[in-house]
């Protein structure tokens, strides 16, 4: 097997790069020494894709992009770079051209939709007292408290930003569905997963925060994708 690719992890709404903490540890234990996690502004899809592209461009070799939640829209938009060899979607949006996370969500509104609230500056927050039940019901109360207090709210307008030319149409992709997800309806995940024709599809009985509650299984899928791509 040739050298392992650099894995670039892309977070979603209501969190930052540290949401990947457990996956980072798991992948490091599997021998991945080139791990990066983008910290995005969550101000627009264009801004977030540009930040991701800049990090990808700094990597000397092949890159496997992994997106959670809205991060799936970002890797779909930014994954057309020549050194990106594959995409992994973790309970994530995988929009087609002209689609937005908000538009996709309208087909099957998520269970926790009512627990989102905008502030006077246009940022959309998950209500602090509802964060555990909405985002990460399978984590401990302490873990949920930290996630709630440190949440990174997106500009609400970002929900309407559309993908231009989705990279999953040209790059090998993998997908993990969270069957107990209250932030992206599982039916929407199934639709998007089927459409991208993933090399492998797994379903976990997990909340939206599968990257934290099922870090071992999520990391195993990423590892499998990296190993398969390294053979090519």
Overall helicity: 25-40%
Taking pLDDT < 50 over at least 5 consecutive residues as the criterion, the unreliable ranges are none
Structural domain tally: 1
Q: How large, in whole angstroms, is the Cα Rg?
A: 16 Å
N-to-C series of helices and strands: EHEHEHEHEEHHEHEHH
Largest sheet strand order: 2-1-3-4-7-8
- First-to-last CA distance: 9 Å
Globally, the shape reads globular
Q: Quote the average pLDDT.
A: 97
- Specify the CATH homologous superfamily: Alpha/Beta hydrolase fold, catalytic domain
- Let me know the number of strands: 8
Query: How would you sum up the major sheet?
Result: 6 strands, parallel
Broad CATH class: Alpha Beta
Organism: Acidovorax bellezanensis
InterPro entries: AB_hydrolase_1, AB_hydrolase_fold, Sec-Metab_Biosynth_Hydrolase
Protein name: Alpha/beta hydrolase
Domain AB hydrolase-1: 7-220
What does this protein structure show overall?
By secondary structure, the chain is an alpha/beta fold. The chain has a single domain, classed as Rossmann fold. Helix content is 36%, strand content 17%. The chain contains 9 helices and 8 strands. A 6-stranded parallel β-sheet has the order 2-1-3-4-7-8, sandwiched between helices. Strands 5-6 form a two-stranded antiparallel ribbon. Helix 3 (71-78) links the parallel strand 3 and strand 4. Helix 1 packs across helix 9 (215-231) and helix 2 (45-57) crosses helix 3 (71-78). The relative contact order is 0.20.
């Amino acid at each position: 097997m040739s050298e392992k690719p650099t894995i670039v992890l892309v977070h979603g709404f209501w969190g930052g790069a540290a949401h990947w903490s457990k996956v980072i540890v798991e992948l490091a234990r599997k021998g991945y020494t080139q791990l990066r996690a983008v910290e995005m502004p969550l101000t627009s899809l264009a801004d977030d894709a540009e930040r991701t592209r800049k990090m990808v461009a700094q990597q000397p070799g092949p890159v496997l992009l992994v997106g959670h939640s809205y991060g799936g829209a970002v890797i779909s938009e930014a994954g057309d770079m020549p050194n990106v060899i594959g995409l992994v979607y973790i309970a994530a949006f995988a929009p087609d051209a002209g689609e937005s996370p908000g538009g996709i969500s309208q087909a099957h509104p998520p269970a926790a939709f009512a627990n989102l609230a905008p502030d006077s500056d246009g940022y959309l927050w998950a209500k602090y007292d509802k964060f555990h039940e909405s985002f990460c019901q399978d984590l401990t109360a302490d873990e949920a408290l930290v996630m709630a207090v440190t949440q990174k709210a997106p500009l609400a307008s970002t929900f309407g930003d559309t993908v231009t030319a989705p990279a999953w149409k040209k790059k090998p992709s993998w997908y993990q569905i969270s069957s107990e997800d209250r932030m992206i309806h599982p039916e929407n995940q199934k639709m998007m997963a089927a459409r991208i024709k993933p090399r492998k599809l797994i379903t976990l009985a997990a909340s939206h925060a599968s990257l934290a509650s099922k870090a071992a299984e999520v990391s195993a899928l990423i590892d499998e994708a990296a190993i398969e791509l390294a053979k090519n």
